[in-house]
Amino acid sequence: MPQEEPLDVLIVGAGLSGIGAASALQRGCPGKRYAILEARDAIGGTWDLFRYPGIRSDSDMYTLGYAFRPWLDAKAIADGPAILDYVRSTAREHGIEPHIRYGHKVIGASWCSKQALWTVQARLNSGETRMLRARFLYLCSGYYSYDEAYRPRFEGEDGFAGRIVQPQFWPEDLDYAGRQVVVVGSGATAVTVVPAMTDRASHVTMLQRSPTYVVARPSRYRFAHRMRRLFPERLAYALTRWRVIGESMFLYWLARSKPQLVKQKIIEMAGQQLGSPEAAAAHFTPGYKPWDQRVCVVPDGDLFEAIRSGRASVVTDHIARFTRNGILLQSGRELAADLVVMATGLTLKLFGGATLVVDGRVIDPSRAMSYKGMMLSGVPNCALAFGYTNASWTLKADLTAAWVCRLLRHMDARGQAIAVAHRDPSVPEAPFLDFNSGYVERARHLLPKQGARKPWQVYQNYLRDLLTIRVGRIDDGVLRLGSKGGMP
Q: Which range of residues forms the domain containing residue 377?
């Protein structure tokens, strides 16, 4: 089989970020040859993988959706199938599908400065390996392992008479009608699964070690409907999107600048939703500040309504061990269970688990520094889609895709083949994410660093990134550009 000509851009991942990156490339760099490598056999990434009851976004679709394609569904907080259809229809309508190569799991990529090329190794479903070459590598493979969720083990599990499942690998044949269900966890997945399972389960208990901030929001955004009545589709969407961005940035600023005030308000609202300030104090009062971890959103207060109606309940305690008929807690209480759902979190994995090698040197991400939150020091011609932790993922992914196109056009105009940011040892380092969610804490030793000054800082601020990425200089004195033959 003759070797394929090098591609201009190789995108890894056909999820929300990858499809957005491909569309940006087609619009911003229409002459570029590209392909998307997707490990699975379908478009959609997270939204095709996760099939648990109630799967939905925890961000509004006006910002989780693409800037270039209006979200027209009535619901602002959408369910998984609607989001999956949005991603797939975007790929179809923008002619992206023919560029996707399914069943290609990227296991390694090696950069050669002499050729200014990446050689990417992909394992096919058949088990054979295929090599592809590209001038630019764009990693849109997300931040967690598709193959392994975080799953703590407990004494007595083998003797449990019921079934234990994980949301990430939800069994198609699972029938929980009339069952006593315990959902272990208190994050975004748990607060989604609990109300969704109450329609058929006998009772659902959310068992948490510690509380999470939970806020009820309407599933429909009235401002968006008003804008659609008054303005053309795209203008209405843009106005709604900017309104949501402004609101979310203000609320985040308020939470970080006046944490006690915001904490008190969130707990007060939870008490109103539950009809019990005592229940809010016991089960919805975290021991950390708002946005130290992500704030969970429940559409139309569905979690609170399920608890208020008696179909669901919350228990805050630690697991001592499993028993034959349920879970024994450290308090001595036993929770009866026919089914236990372990909504205990994700396992973080960078690059989709692929190994990156630059001129024979294996890249250790934990020793690299993030450049503008989009590249890693010492890794040429490679961008990463990594979204916000305090806002919708797609906001940053969209900006990154636009910046990649700017960079490619800049290089083409000057006959340059290599772009790399070298780490400045004088720049003090800080953790990549100022966030203490469990999946981040468990993997902090694997993450790159950020710097104490630009362009090494990760802002988690859409407006600052917008200015930097859309109008900031490409040749900023840190990003080095050069011709093939050697590292600039």
A: 7-146+347-482
